[in-house]
Write the structure tokens for this entry.
Amino acid sequence: MDASWHQPDEPLPSRLEGLRGWIEGEWQHCDDLLRREVDVHGTRVLLIWLRGLVDLARIEEGVLQPLETLSRRPSDIRQIGSVLHTVHIRSIGLRYELNTAVSDGQVVLYADGSKVALVLDISDPPARAVEKAENEPTIEGPQEAFIEHLELNIALLRKRIRSPRLKVESMRIGVYSKTTVCIAYIEGIAKPTLVDEARQRLRKISIDGVNDINKLRELIGDAPYTLFPTTEETERPDRVTGSLLQGRIAIMLDGAPTSLMVPAQFINFLASAEDYYMNYTLTLFIRILRHIAYWSSLMLPSLYVALLSYNQDLIPTPLLVSVEAQHRGIPFPTTLEALVMMCVFEALREAGTRLPKAVGQSVSIVGTLIVGDAAVRAGLVSPGMGIVVAGTGIASFSLPAYGFVNSSRIIQFAFVIIAGIFGLVGIVVLGLVLVTHLVSLRSFGVPYMAPIAPFTWSDMKDTFIRVPWFATRRRPEQLEPIDRVSNRSPAPRVPKKSPYGEGQP
């Protein structure tokens, strides 16, 4: 293991030869490390950078050409820095700081005999342009999405919250990756103890490298063995902006095109970004439909199995006769039939996800139709079971949070198995266990099922329904924001009927 990582306070060599020898040993077998030595009136100056992470034109115009303008030997390295044409220059004096600066894609300038080096921020790392949100598309509203460049992601937030109260605190995580992680919150709204809790959890991370937001989520999340996500993930800057204004915290990772939002609550995963870009009367119907779809995706196959296997007396006689006729000749029991069909459906959905986009959707849709129709014609499954499994899949597709959908995909298998063994009694017992588990969860100290349990009437304005903006006066009480009032606008005026008739003043 590299000794430099365990000696962070070791100063830079005082001579150019010592620095060059240390660099050659430290960055051995790194062919992309470039060095250029320049003589400035007898003072040797060494430039160090990595190929592909730096704008070469800016090195030529902002560093090399200004050095040629010096008319005499510089007295110290600060005099060299005064003539450079760069936006930001800072000094470092430790070896690990030089390693970090070079790894970040910055240029390090060192003058012979100096105790410090200059870091020139002229990096130009490879990054894609801002594009539309792929996983959270909306018809209305902004279409921008985060990318893998942390500074640009922060700029997307600054574009929407133009206030110095928006605080962004950065830290490095990972012994080798030295990945930049930042916490974003609005001072005066976010609860200070919530911000401190996020800082402490991030500082306790000691790992070789963090290169994905999921690894960070598993390291800081509550209840690590639960199937339900205790942190909310999004690729939309507008959703992060709305969460910050409520008093929540955003955690962003360099190299990740998504952001984490904490605390996370069950109700957040059933709300879509588009709910806030349409009239509140339309949102009422869509949200209720989304809640019905979620619980249907969990319970529908298990209820079908339980009613056919154990509780046939609860089915109306004409419907029971029709369903039993469909199952005549099926060689498998109802439970096994449901499990096989669900596994086939999940396999087709997974295949459609992993294949290229041009053919992935065709495979998932056409494959489901062909396989389902062939299984029914061959007498392996009943038409009713095919309808139930297809309805379950459609219900799960209506949920906006992909990570939340994955948890329901696993839980529905448990409900089917328990329904095949104990019938409706097993479904009720497992449902009580599930609800008890959800109520016991917390995310950064906030109850997972709030504002339903514990019940908070003032926070119900944005759960099953969304009240109009002029009626949304206060921020969520469960987040305990410092400034609880979010809307101080006067209520809209209701026009009175004119006593002179329609169209008269």
